[in-house]
Amino acid sequence: MNRVLITLYAVVLMVTLSGCKSSSSVQVSRQAILSALTQVPVVPAKQPEASPEPKVITPKKNISSTHEDDLWQYVRHRLSFNTASHPRLDKRIKWYLSQPNYLQVVNQRAVPYFYHVVNKVESKGLPMEIALLPFVESDFRPKAKSTQNAVGVWQLVDATAYHFGIKKDKWYDGRQDVLASTDVALEYLLYLHQRFNGDWLHALAAYNSGEGRVKKAIAKNKKAGKPTHFWHLKLPKETAEYVPKLLALSHLLKTAPSDFTIPSLPNHATTSVLDIGQQFDIGQLAKLSGIDKREIYALNQGFLKHRSSPSGPHVVLLPLPQKALLQSAFFRDNFSHGYTVKANDTLYRIALNAGMSVTALKALNNKTSNLIRVGETLRISKNTAQQQWLIDHEISPYIKEIEAKPLPQRAHHHTVKTGESLWTISRRYNVAVKDLLNWNSLTAQTLIKPGKVLTLLLPAVDMQQHQQEPLPPAPVNRVKVIQSLLRHGKPLANEEPN
After folding, report:
1. Spacing of C-alpha 15 from chain mean position
2. What is the mean pLDDT of residues 400-420?
3. What's the burial of 39, exposed, middle or buried (CB within 10 Å: 0-12/13-18/19+)?
4. End-to-end alpha carbon distance in the chain
5. Would you report the helix, strand and coil content of the chain in percent, each value rounded to 5?
6. d(CA 420, CA 450)
């Protein structure tokens, strides 16, 4: 009890001395007083989750208007990681400086997406360095594939993508969808950040080489009495160079040396996300929007076929700023209809009922203020007609898509051996890890032990076709034939072949 009173006295004294501080400091002090009374550690109040609505990036006041207009300048002034000199970091910095136009070249692939990535990173409260990971991971190639079958700009492996909700089927691979994979990668990084007690370097190392491997390296150093900072951990060569690669890029952007070219991008979205709301044919979308089909495919490399997956998602990135999209004839004709303003209506209420944001509603109607009049006609979003978005590919045999008939399957049972994992088993049988998990009611975190029996559904051989084929002639026992000729002058009819 005396300890509590001493703590309370110290806190009250601190509050008294800080009377001139801001109201936010007073609020923290009240939490501290409550903690002293209850002997519970002070825990900062949880920040409210960011609105899912896209928002315009608003730079801090101490950044000049030039910086406000350029996305790369905006990013570089918000980088926060410590990039103090280290031999591995210095080595990577020298590599970048030997490729002075590297970022300029890779930026060309990032142009349609980078604003959206930065926006998503900020909305989740992540360090700005995380927005640079697609450059480090894949040189911003949506279809990049590693030797470990990690795919996309964020290099997600199948098990991680599946666990965090990425959709994948014959129509669509969300790992190649830049914006969908960004959402998943950020969730995964938040998870790792929490698992490693707020250490971002540990979290990034785990993102590259796996959570278990980094934890094992930390535990080994602890047992040996060694520091557990990233630089002191014994990790695979790729991971040991991976984190310095990100830190080096951050360092060069912050210091902006004259022999390293920093790209320039407008600090606003040049592409817009449109949810069609139902399965759609990409050719039909191109026809209605007037956008070249090849450009739609180039922006949306998660689509694997001529239409979106029947089970979704039906979201597409289009090469138009949001305002231009909303004011286009394509959007007005296919996604909006007239609404007459009634008494007590507000823009917020109309937008809410239409499933839109107020910003989108104002852009659709080219409004600069929130003022509306009773009797005024506004355009609001609407659901589209199903038949409008699908093309019947069976109209002509020349454009009919021929689907492969599913192969008959049989159940195969595999007994796990020492050293095997779900990954190695999937490679052996040429099946997806996700299918192994589904067939055996497992999760991505399940540890399989030697002796466990797994069920696999593998293509069965179609025996009926083989039964209809004539059997090849049986090999003849030539010794018996010769003996028969010597004895009887002809081969015996009942002489059996070998």
Report:
1. 46
2. 70
3. exposed
4. 99
5. 45, 10, 45
6. 8
Q: Is 137 a catalytic residue?
A: yes
**Alpha helices (H) in 139-177, listed in sequence order:** 158-163
Whether the bond into 459 is cis, omega within 30 of 0: no
Whose CA is closest to 339, among 380, 286, 283, 386? 380
The structure tokens 């009797």 sit at: 375
pLDDT attached to residue 67: 57
Helix 114-123 crosses helix 178-195 at what angle (to 10 degrees)? 30
Tokens representing residue 313 in the block: 């998602």
Token duo for residue 434:
């996700």
Closest CA to 390 of 307, 454, 458, 332: 307
Specify the pLDDT at position 4. 44
- H/E stretch holding 361 reads helix 358-364
Strand blocks (E) in 277-358:
315-318, 336-340
Report whether pLDDT(180) > 80.
Answer: yes
Among 129, 137, 420, 469, which one carries the catalytic annotation? Answer: 137
For residue 232, give the amino acid letter: H
Residues whose CB falls within 8 Å of the CB of residue 255, separated by 6 or more in sequence, listed in order: none
Q: Report DSSP state, residue 346.
A: -
Rounded Cα distance between 6 and 12, Å, is: 10
Q: What amino acid occupies position 248?
A: A
